[in-house]
Amino acid sequence: MIFRVLVALLTIACLSYAAGRCNAQEPLAIGADFEGASVRNVEIDQQARSVSFMPGGDPERGWPCWWYFRIDGVGLDEEITLRLRGSSAAVENQKPLAASWAMPSQATYSTDGESWLHTSQGMRQGKWMVYKVKPNASSLYVAWGPPYTPQTAQKMVREIGNRSAHATATELCRSRAGRAVPMLHVREGLRESKERFGVWVQARQHAWESGSSWVAHGFAEWIISDDPPAAWLRQHADIFVIPIMDVDNTATGNGGKNALPHDHNRDWSPEPHWNETMAAQRMVTDLIAEDRMDVFLDLHNPAPGDPSFFYILPRELIDEPMIGLRDRFIDLAYANISQIKPMIPMSRNPKVTGASYHPLWRQISANWVSMNGNADTVSLCLETIWNSPNSTATGYRAVGASLAATVHEYLFERTEQQRR
């Protein structure tokens, strides 16, 4: 009897010890040794299973609001707490950037670095934004928004180039740091260049605005699709898509906006500083010289509380027919983007970028193209909302597809009007 009791107690003790071993938590660890990663001031509370941090990035290379890193050592079915505070680094006004730029309502995470999901709604607690995430994986990536790195851009243009006989994967140029700047060129058929519309789509002149690259991605996917309007557009236009302009800051995890001496979007001057701007400006100038710079679209993400909207020049700075054509394009785009399900908030009211907007307002890309383009050039900056439940890779790509459909609809209308 005593022997049986001892055996039972020993068995219970062994099972308890084994259970404890199984439930023992691995220490959490942070990884940021990959393209696009950015984080600093990391503190890990192993007992609370939380990670406190702020965005990384060199403030001289743009606003420090982008963050992206990996967490290892997560237990099965374990919930991890992310505690984010705004960067303490001084920016151009010698004060820290407002924390709201770094604090999406929902953070983004992935267990494979490919498919990106939203966390639950973050909770603001004083200077902190707190997110909870249960990845059901031993490792996860967390980020401000769905990352889109130069490697992603290279993969996109290469795969679309392989998938479509009408798409060519190429490079706009090499960056100042020697990185490739991927570009997609799409055209179908034997129509001569002089008979084709010119369509230029570029994204990510500000490196932290990752959603804009996903919009460009969706645009590219639509134009090589089997949709008859997409085929018409390919047959009647030369289409150029650059998913990342500021590849260096995107690769190194810097914000890019207001980088020194100025960012890419304020570099459209007679003597550009950035190689990407120089190359894009040269190609756009060639399209203007051929009288076929028809649609120029510069893709961005806006302020935390803004819906999607277009930036435009004041009417007094441009003439007809540019004004009427621009307004028609905006109406078509609003109608198409507003139909996206689930909804992407879109404002019908554009915002103006003129002399009061920024000292270098003439060197902003969409403004420069409007002021130097053809009489019928439509040149616009689309800011796509990033702080919405539908601000996901899927949502952004839907905006890109709707924008491409708008380009078709607008140019098809122009063709029909010219025939009358």
From TrEMBL:
Q: Which ranges carry the Peptidase M14 domain?
A: 146-420
| GO MF term (any one) | metallocarboxypeptidase activity
Into which family does the record put it? Belongs to the peptidase M14 family.
Enumerate the Gene Ontology biological process terms: proteolysis
Q: What is this protein called?
A: Zinc carboxypeptidase
Keywords recorded for this protein, A-Z:
Carboxypeptidase, Hydrolase, Protease, Signal
UniProt key word Signal: yes
